[in-house]
Automatic annotation (TrEMBL):
Record's subcellular location: Membrane
Protein name (record): O-antigen ligase family protein
Domain O-antigen ligase-related: start-end pairs: 205-360
Organism annotation: Hymenobacter mellowenesis
Membrane topology: Multi-pass membrane protein
Keyword Zinc-finger part of the UniProt annotation: no
GO molecular function, a single term: ligase activity
Keyword list, A-Z: Ligase, Membrane, Transmembrane, Transmembrane helix
PANTHER family in the record: LIPOPOLYSACCHARIDE BIOSYNTHESIS PROTEIN PA4999-RELATED, TEICHURONIC ACID BIOSYNTHESIS PROTEIN TUAE
Database matches in InterPro entries: O-antigen_ligase-rel_domated, WaaL-like
Membrane-spanning segments: 42-62, 69-87, 93-110, 122-141, 168-187, 194-211, 240-258, 350-371, 383-401
């Protein structure tokens, strides 16, 4: 097989797998989990496996040098591996470790080796956006036909790992950022028809967010809006005010209409949107979601004290927490649901499961990405790409204080794609050295 033919086939499989990532929930068959076990994870594993075969066969070239980011990823993976070796449940940790390798290899490894070109980046993001849009449309149709359902929101966001959880809205936040960027900067969105179409799309996505009862996402989207206003300035920010005002009115109206049409949803307690927004800061036992978060944060610190260096083992937090609440029913934030979730904090999860080594290596990795982004922002003239990537990275880091994204493929795959795309844009924006102007190829490879 020729290298060009192999690369084309691998890219096609990569696009299909990306489109399947948001859609991999168990809607179709609860018994067989169709879509969960038979779609995205096998496609990702197949893509990574074929990439490795291509590297060994010489159909694609190995990266010439190891970047600093590659070394930091290896350092963090090494810390997780060490924690897996000393885990209290090696089988659970080994499965967790394997999934981390799969998601990182698919989201970062494929685009790192293939060095995607501009059009290939757009196709990859388009495939991911297509799957995400179909998922949002499906959620809206269900809400319109059965009522606003808290349980349904969790059902659609059902994770790949049994012990993980990420709300659907976290998957939609990058799509909302993209629509905001279009409203701010795209020429076609500056005329009346373009702004109307983008506003309708924004309204539909915000409805899914509003109907999901995700308080953390409400705060995250507010932080995203403030970041955009801070970076884009008052004049550009005005372009967001009217579309967002119209979208907010339509969301509130739709909420009331659906509650009137379905006064008793089959799987949810009737509530009020404004009440949900006001409950963000309520961490009492009356607010199960927030109380459980606080409980898990405190328990994470207890686990860290048990194994401060290498942690209790990647992926073992849920079983430890279940054992804790079952043997301590007097725990003030105990709830009878016993949902198998994570620590609801990426940094505390690293601290508890991988110890000080896992937290330090993870912070070095994320810190390097943040410093690299800030250097790009302050070194060159501000561009829409700089604004978008900065807002994305900052609200990812902020939202990680209330959620653990490292085990959620629908979020972490997009994260690694954003990391690669940011480097692509940053290197393309760099001025070419005068000595390289006369060479056939520029000294800076914009595909890297």
């Amino acid at each position: 097989m020729t290298p060009s033919r192999f690369r084309s086939l691998l890219l096609g499989l990569f696009y299909v797998a990306l489109a399947s990532v948001p859609l991999s929930v168990a809607w179709f068959s609860p018994r067989w989990h169709f879509g969960l076990l038979l779609a995205s994870e096998p496609l990702m594993a197949l893509t990574v496996g074929i990439l490795i075969v291509g590297l060994l066969a010489g159909w694609v070239a190995w990266p010439r040098t190891a970047r600093r980011l590659d070394k930091l990823i290896g350092l963090h993976v090494g810390a997780l591996f060490l924690s897996t070796v000393f885990s209290g449940d090696v089988l659970v940790s080994a499965k967790y470790f394997a999934t981390i390798l799969l998601y990182t290899g698919f989201g970062y490894g494929v685009q790192r080796v293939l060095r995607l070109e501009r059009t290939e980046w757009f196709r990859a993001l388009g495939a991911l956006a297509l799957g995400t849009s179909l998922l949002a449309a499906y959620a809206l149709l269900r809400h319109a036909s059965t009522g606003i359902s808290y349980t349904f929101s969790y059902f659609v966001a059902r994770p790949f790992l049994e012990h993980g959880h990420t709300n659907l809205t976290v998957v939609l936040e990058p799509l909302i950022l993209l629509l905001n960027m279009v409203l701010l900067y795209h020429p076609r969105a500056q005329n009346q028809r373009g702004r109307f179409l983008v506003t309708i799309l924004l309204t539909g996505v915000l409805m899914v967010v509003a109907f999901s009862y995700s308080r953390a996402s409400y705060i995250s989207l507010l932080a995203q809006a403030l970041l955009l206003l801070a970076f884009s300035g008052r004049e550009a920010g005005v372009r967001l005010l009217l579309p967002w005002a119209v979208a907010s009115c339509l969301v509130l109206s739709a909420w009331q209409v659906i509650n009137i049409a379905h006064p008793h949803p089959p799987t949810a307690t009737k509530t009020n949107l404004l009440h949900e927004l006001g409950s963000v800061s309520d961490f009492s036992s009356a607010n199960e979601s927030n109380a459980e978060r606080m409980s898990r944060w405190v328990f994470s610190l207890d686990l860290f004290q048990q194994e401060p260096v290498v942690g209790v083992g990647p992926g073992t937090f849920p079983d430890r927490y279940l054992e804790f609440v079952r043997h301590d029913p007097a725990h003030p934030n105990y709830t009878p649901t016993l949902r198998r979730m994570n620590a609801h904090n990426l940094y505390l999860d690293w601290l508890a499961e991988a110890g000080a080594l896992g937290l330090l290596s993870g912070l070095l990795l994320l810190g390097y990405l943040l410093v690299r982004q800030l250097k790009w922002v302050f070194r060159w003239e501000q561009t829409p790409a700089q604004v978008g990537f900065t807002a994305y990275l900052l609200f990812f880091l902020l939202h990680s204080f209330t959620q653990d994204f490292w085990q959620e493929p629908r979020v972490i795959v997009l994260f690694w794609l954003a990391v690669g795309l940011q480097r692509h844009y940053a290197r393309a924006a760099m001025p070419v050295a005068p000595a390289a102007m006369g060479k056939p190829e520029p000294a800076l490879d914009t595909h890297a």
